[in-house]
Amino acid sequence: MRRRLIVVFLVPLVGVLLVLGGAYAWSAARSIQQEQISQLLGDVAYFVTSARQALRSGSPEVVASEAERYFELYGTRVLVIDRAGAPWVDGADEQRVLDEATTAQVQLALAGRRGEVPEPAPPWALSDSVMVEPVIDNGEAIGAVVVTASGDIARETILRQWGLLLAGAILATSVGILVVFRLANWVLRPIRRVDRAMEAIERGEVEARIADETGPPELRSMILIFNRMAEEIEKVMSRQQEFALNASHELRNPLNALLVRVEYLATGLDEEWERDVEETREEGRRMTRILDTLLNLARSSERGAEPGEVDVVDVVRGRVEAWTQAAAQARVSLVADAAEPVLAVTDRTILESALDAVIDNAVKFSPASTRVEVSVTDSSEGCEIVVRDHGPGVEDDELAHLAERFWRSPRNRSTPGSGLGLAIATDLLHSIGGRLRVASPEGGGLAVHLRLSSGEPS
Predict the structure, then answer these.
(1) What pLDDT sits at residue 214?
(2) String of b and e for 320-329 (b: at least 16 CB within 10 Å)?
(3) PANTHER family in the record, alphabetically (predicted)?
(4) Is there a contact between 284 and 251 (Cβ–Cβ < 8 Å)?
(5) Average pLDDT over residues 283-299
(6) Dihedral (C-alpha) 260, 262, 265, 271: value to the nearest 10 degrees?
């Protein structure tokens, strides 16, 4: 996010600097060239006056010394042409031949016409600036003055200006980057604190708060609202924890009393009741484990106990055996299709509770004289329990709603239930790193897949 914020600030800043800097650089280059041309015009006017006097007197010494001195100081060549078109005075150390364009201008000057003023050119296309002026005496051209200024001088001046401009742009950009970084940190620091507080609350540290309220006013308001929300969440979770703690304590006593009565009644029953009594004891012990899990959740604010090594096939067989009688009353055959042990690192009580919810749902919606099959498969991705019934099933567009709380298919509204079974199973599996998936297999009915994580047993 900081990167995006910095880009949002820097791109306009760099764009403005490029536009303004480019415009200033071009304007400076044009200004330097205009200044050179103005100076060239002044020099031409001066040397025209000197050349007129020299040509009148026929003595080139005065104008020659000035032309040579001018060339030494400024590198600008001054050439005086006589009436015949031959060089009369040349201030340069080396005699250079005039190019065709300059020769043409000289011919026009000897005819009494003034030369054209040089036009400014882009800095990379600068060449020598040439100005040709006729020397007029009594309305007649008696010669011409050619002043040639090197383009290197103007180019060096322009590059120097551009260098200073580039240094200023780099300095301005550096200051802008520093300001943007400071501004981004100032804006994003409260957001990072909110992120850390939210991560702490996600880990179960519901007492996490944001103490520092620096930053923009809008973010300070957000922090204040966040702290209020966190306090409300802590209150709600505290009430839920107290309720779970009280419920687990309140249910433990009647459950213990019920188990005592079962043991007392078992002493007066025949041996044919021994299996039913043992199943009742096992269900009582399972309810005790559920209460222990509920109590542990209330005390530690964690879902369930520490995971351990569990034989998933043994769990499936135990729950199928526990639900066999209820399935028989509904005239449904409940079968466990699992043989070899399949080990997984998970919470046994939570897995049993999730499987109970799915089996209960399958038995409830299965027609009489049908089968509910519970199988276990193992792979590198983790083990999976599949509860397959042969009931009416649901439409394909209804599959995604089966795990939603209180949702029921319109065709099954008359069947008793609250629509919470698969939703509870989904939440329970999610708490141990698993997931639940519902599919419509071939032949009708539903197949509920309980996928456990691929953690290796210790």
Answers:
(1) 64
(2) bebbbeebee
(3) SENSOR HISTIDINE KINASE TRCS (PTHR45436:SF5), SENSOR HISTIDINE KINASE YKOH (PTHR45436)
(4) no
(5) 67
(6) -130
8 A C-beta contact, residue 27 and residue 112: no
What value does the mean pLDDT of the chain take?
Answer: 80
Mean pLDDT of the region 139-152: 83
Q: Number of C-alpha atoms within 13 angstroms, CB side, residue 439?
A: 11
CA 174 to chain CA centroid, Å, is 25
Q: Which of 349, 345, 231 lies closest to 285 in space, CA to CA?
A: 349
- Beta sheet of 77-82, edge-to-edge order: 87-90, 77-82, 140-149, 129-137
Closest by alpha carbon to 92, among 62, 72, 112? 72
Q: State the pLDDT confidence band at 371, using cuts at 50, 70 and 90.
A: very high
> Which residues touch 246 (CB under 8 Å, ≥6 apart)?
none
| Average pLDDT for 94-104 | 75
State mean pLDDT over 76-96: 80
Name all domains of the chain by residue range, CATH numbers in brackets: 2-157 (3.30.450.20), 205-302 (1.10.287.130), 308-451 (3.30.565.10)
Per-residue CA distances from 173 to 87, 177, 181, 382 (Å) = 55, 6, 12, 55
Distance between first and last Cα of the chain: 41
Q: How do beta strands 332-337 and 370-377 pair?
A: parallel
Instruction: Tell me how crowded residue 226 is: count the other CB atoms within 10 A of its CB.
Output: 19
Confidence of residue 33 (pLDDT cuts 50, 70, 90): confident
Residue 76: what pLDDT? 83
Residues recorded for the chain? 458
